[in-house]
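As a warm-up, study this chain.
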Amino acid sequence: MTKDTQEDAARLERGRLLFAGAWAYVMSAGSVAGLPPQAGIEIAFAGRSNVGKSSLINALTGRKALARTSNTPGRTRELNFFAAEAPLTIVDMPGYGYARASKTAIDNWTRLIFDYLRGRSSLRRVYVLIDARHGVKDNDREALEVLDQAAVSYQIVLTKCDQPKKGDLEATKAETERTIAKRPAAHPEVLLTASRTGLGIAELRATIADLL
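Now compare it with the structure written out below.
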């Protein structure tokens, strides 16, 4: 085994151990005043309402319905917090692009997200989920603008990568890389995942473990 192979194996193992604990829903917050005290490191997941955030969080933590714990009326526009014994908290951000929400609700929701991004020193990175079947859409670009303005480090994760054809997936990945190339807060590496098959889940865990 080469040194590089050993280092890769060690990274994957650190990621596995980080997510091996008993993950549980902690709380939801609909305002900055309602946020839990900062402790350890937070990562957040953002994306369109149907991009597969719940499935990805469940795949990362090895829980079948963890992210659905908070899926009740009144919480769909809140920040949902999940934690284990590890020094890491996962924040599930409200899905954007939900056309049926009122303008007032969307404004309040946008303000909550921006205030959270600007005022949370424990937030290490936001993972922006993009559906690999569709690529970056206008509302995704709007979300990236908010993240750039907030000066929060973020990284693109393509979801549902088991569904497009190989050539289409490669083209979407390349176009996504071009989209973020000049964005100041964007991490240059685009990650490929598929919650249904487990594709890229170990690599995403390792990437998150590198932040600690």
